[in-house]
Request: fold
Amino acid sequence: MMIRNMRVMAAVTVVLLWASGARADKLQGFKDAVAAKPGCESIPYKDLFRVCDGKNDVMHEWCDGMRGPIKCDAGTTSTLKGNLERERQNYEKLKNKKRDLEDKKYQSSDDNEKSRLQSEIEAVSKEIDASERAMNAIKSDSDKRSDFVKTAISTIETCIDHRRAIMNIFAEALDKVRGENDDDIKPLARILRDRYEEAKSGHEQAITGKENARAKCKSEAP
Reply:
């Protein structure tokens, strides 16, 4: 009986020591989180910290421009469209001018007049070729612009997804610190609560900014 009681007491002692050690580790974790710079390192919950830390670098890759364009300059697409339409009109005018000259040459019976008209026809033909090259160049720029805009929209949407995931981690951390009841941890939890609310708000503002950038890019789609 005595041996059994001793075993029970030893087991209880182990549990108490483990609980005491776990509490001390948790308290130290909160102290370290408060001392850390804002961001994932300020999360004392190991599971949330690991997820946050793993996603953070990926988020910055997509949101800071390393993985592709994250904005579209306003007006570029409309400028290209305007330039292309003006060049098309110029191209049609030149073609009409050439037809008129060819008709005049066909109807003329004067060799000198025909020679002069032929020179004008050749000059206009060169202008037509130049106009066609200009249109092709603008079309090429327009295609590049279309690819750029599509890439930017995709990049921004991926950025928003990653940033929202980080924001949700801070929202979860916020819920957890609000539920801390240990008297020693409560003051630290309140400090972290304010930081998480600020971080969550910061991510919300950043997401709104990216949503605005996406809307601008969509308006720039050819």
Summary: Helices lie at 2-35, 46-63, 76-107, 111-178, 186-219. The radius of gyration is 35 Å.
